Sequence to fold (260 residues):
Amino acid sequence: MKRKIIIGNWKMNPNTGKVASKWFQEAARLVSRSKKTEIVICPPFIYLDNLSRIRTSKIKLGAQDTFAENPPAGGGPFTGEVSSEMLYNLGVGYVILGHSERRAFGENNQIVNKKIKGALSAGLRPIVCVGEEERDESHKYFDIVKKQVKECLAGISRDSFHKIILAYEPIWSISTTKARRDAVPDDSREMAVFIRKTLSDITTPAIANKVRILYGGSVNERDAEGFLRDGRVDGVLVGQASLSVEKFIEIVRICEALKN
Ligand code: PGA
Fold:
């Protein structure tokens, strides 16, 4: 059985390090007795250093992006970039890659693929986001997600697959999408099964089974239980609701209370 994982993606929030530290300290206190759930918070880069100094064995840190290459000397002339090695050296364990909000800036599957390879070789666990913009009646969205999975994971060594987390985030359900719609556990289940099959086709069923698949897209404390119980996923990636420590902790609590 894979361990369930709850990931908070703070996106470009909050506005001050003070608020970030207060959130983190409070959450660390509230989850100190959690047993089953892996908890990861992905704040903006600039808060990672401070948050890594707050003592907790329960909450791990993730970044929201990384540089696509690992320069041989560990650093290099890449203004504005942060390398996977720098993140790893700070104690960061995870990195969100291929988020639709970054893809909207022009990031494509090939760039995501490079970033995944760089992250893995530096010792980070990539949280790879895939998901369609719309659900069309001819079901082309399956092809879109299959292409994303295949191209993002092209050339990744089979030994590394167990470190990869795939987050299915349909853009039409993300909180910041205009005229968004709610997804339901059936949407998540259907796609999680399809992604697992795609992974199986590019590796083996046993390897595909080791990859954790998450659902993300406006998950909150009211609907998290449905996704976690009936969505065939190994966890959830939470954006908006992770900005509230109470809501996020409630989602962790729901996960802890699940039977399996
Ligand atoms: P949301 O964001 O929960 O606010 O929809 C999820 C994400 O974009 O990672």
Observations:
- Residues 9, 169, 174-175, 216-219, 237-240 surround 2-phosphoglycolic acid (CB under 6 Å).
- Strands lie at 5-9, 38-42, 59-63, 94-97, 125-130, 165-168, 212-216, 235-238.
